[in-house]
Design brief:
By secondary structure, the protein is of the alpha+beta class. About 40% of the residues lie in helices and about 30% in strands. The protein contains six helices and nine strands; from the N terminus they run E-H-E-E-H-E-E-H-H-E-H-E-H-E-E. A three-stranded antiparallel sheet has the order 1-3-2, covered by helices on one side. A hairpin with a 5-residue loop joins strand 2 and strand 3. The model has no long low-confidence stretch (mean pLDDT about 90).
Length: about 200
């Protein structure tokens, strides 16, 4: 939950001050008076608290986005934990919204993740998937990881994979994390960052 404590001489202005500091609209903030001092010129110590569920903010943002685009969308929100949310989306425009190599989808996810972060002090894990693209991509990457790891373990020659984003690299890291014969490391910078699967030296 995102909170902000401060002192003010006017309770009427407290919401505006909190909204500016917390970067959210006043309608999303509750003000609680913690203490007050002074007889003539009163000073209030207050706590501002965000009163909205960050997951719902993400859901409504996606809904508004597709309505603005004129795209009919089915949006399913799932909470895997208090700080992990997934949005599964299906539309008649799946290929357009996914984009080449998932670039448009990544941009949508990046926007929703950043929006949610404004409403909470906790670090949320946010996954946006359209038409099952990421679920299919995850299966493909796990197959690639297993096939490549077997080859590396057998030949003792390291293998460099194509550049991938952090989410895709993490899938392969996780898939091979308990392998005894190989290890994975990330190399390169920016868009060229990639994984290398290396044999473990005995």
């Amino acid at each position: 939950m995102k909170t902000y404590e401060f002192e003010t001489k006017s309770l009427d202005e407290a919401s505006a001050v909190a909204a500016e500091e917390m970067r959210v609209g006043k309608q999303y903030i509750d003000i609680e008076v913690l203490d007050k001092s002074g007889l003539i010129s009163k000073t209030y110590k207050v706590r501002a608290t965000v009163n909205v569920d960050p997951a719902e903010i993400g859901y409504n943002a996606l809904k508004d986005m597709f309505e603005t685009m004129g795209v009919e969308a089915q949006i399913e929100m799932r909470r895997k934990s208090d700080t992990e949310i997934s949005y599964r989306i299906n539309t008649d425009e799946n290929p357009l919204l996914i984009g080449r190599n998932g670039k448009t989808l990544e941009s949508i996810q990046y926007y929703i993740r950043n929006l949610i972060s404004v409403f909470t002090d906790e670090r949320f894990i946010v996954l946006v998937d359209i038409g099952g693209y990421k679920a299919n991509r995850k299966r493909q990457l796990e197959i690639l990881a297993t096939k490549t790891a077997k080859s590396v373990a057998r030949s003792k020659i390291e293998a460099k994979l194509e550049p991938m984003n952090a989410y895709e690299r993490r899938i392969i890291h996780t898939k091979l994390s308990d392998w005894r014969d190989v290890t994975t490391i990330s190399e390169g910078e920016g868009k060229e960052r990639h994984l290398v699967i290396k044999p473990k030296r005995k």
